[in-house]
Design brief:
The complex is a heterotrimer of chains A (about 140), B (about 130) and C (about 100). By secondary structure, chain B is mainly α. Chain B has helices at about 5-30, 45-60, 70, 90-125, and strands at about 40, 75. In chain B, strands 1-2 form a two-stranded antiparallel sheet. The mean pLDDT of chain B is about 85. Chain C has one domain (about 10-105). Classes of the chains: A alpha+beta (about 140), B mainly alpha (about 130), C mainly alpha (about 100).
Chain lengths: ~140, ~130, ~100
Amino acid sequence: MADDLRIAVASSVSALRAQSTRMRVLSENLANATSTASVDGEDPYRRKIVSFKSELDRASGASLVGIDAISRDRSPFPVQHDPGHPAADQKGNVRMPNVNSLVELADMREASRSYEANLQVVKQAREMIGDLVDLLRAK
Amino acid sequence: MNDLAVFQIGHDRARWLAARVAVVASNVANADTPGYRAKEIAPFGSVLNEARIEMQRSQALHMAPEQSIENRFGVAPRERAVEKHSGNSVALEAEMAALGEAKGQQSAVTAVLGAFHRMLLSSSRG
Amino acid sequence: MSIDPISGRIPLRDAQGVTGGVASLRGNEAAGQADEFSNLIGNAIADVAQNLRKAEAVSIAGIKGMASTQDVVEQVMQAEQALQASIAVRDKVVAAYLEISRMQI
C-alpha cells in the first residue's frame, strides 16, 4: 500500500535539489553579467538556462522532478561601444554577455519561493507522519 | 475492528488527507515543469471515493501492488488554475493553503483517534 | 463473544454461557456446557491472536518500507484494543468463577 506522506516527501526533496541547481546557475549568470572576452574574436559569457522535467517513479508512485538540461541561451550578444576595451573590434564595439541581471534576479526570487514552498511540504508531511506514529506511543 | 465507527472513519479520513498532501507535493514540486497541470484530489465524500475506500480496506492487508492516487481516490485538474506561458498551471499560494488545511485536519483526526483509543483501553481495564 | 468497549458489559447471552458453563461443571451436562464455555474463550483468544498476527505482519512490512505508516498504525491500534478487551473478558470470567466457587461451599 502506498505511503502517500513519504511519497510527498520524496517529490519535494527531488524538487529541492532541482531548485538548488537552478539557483546555482542563476548565480553564475549574475556573477558573469559583465564577463566579456579578453580578445577580439572570442565570445563573452553566454547565458545558461535550466529546464525542468518530471518523472514518475514506478516503484513508489512519486512524481520526481529533476533538471532536464542546462543549455546555453542562443540569443545574440548585445553590443557596447567601448574602443579602449581589449576585446573591442575594428569599429570599437565590444560584445557583452547576453545576461539581463533584472531577469536573472526575478528568476532567482521565483526559484527561492519554490524552494521555500517545497521545504514547507517536507516539514508538514514529516510532522503528519509523526502525528500518526505518536498514536502508537505509550500513553 | 471494534464496533466504534469513529476508528473506521478516522483512518479513512487520515488516508485521504495523506493522499491530498501527496497531490499538493506533486504540484509544488512541478511548479516549474513545462506543461505540468495542477491537480486536485477528489473530495472525501464523493461516491466514487467510497467504492475505492472499500477496495483499499480489503487490500491493505494483502500487500496488493501499488495503486496510484488516481485509482485509489480520483484526481482532477485543479479548478480555476491559470496557465502560465510555459504551459504550467501551478499557483503556489493555492497549494500552500491546501497543505495547511490538510495538516490541520489531520491533527484533529489523530487527536480524535488517540482520545477514543485511550478511552477504550482505560474502560476495558475498569 | 463481544464486549461493549465503553461499558465493559458482555451481552446477556454470552454471560449466561460463561456462568452457566462454570456452574454446571459438577453436573452430567457439564461436558456440553464446559465445551461451550471453552469455545467462547477459545474464540476470543483466536480473535486476539489473529489481530496480533495481522498487526505483526503489517509492522514488519512497514519496517521493510512495504506498508504505509497509516496501515501499521491502524492495525496496531486495533490489536491493542482487542487485546485489552480480551483481558477484560478474562478478568470477568475469573471473577465469575471465583464467585461461583465460593457458592459451592
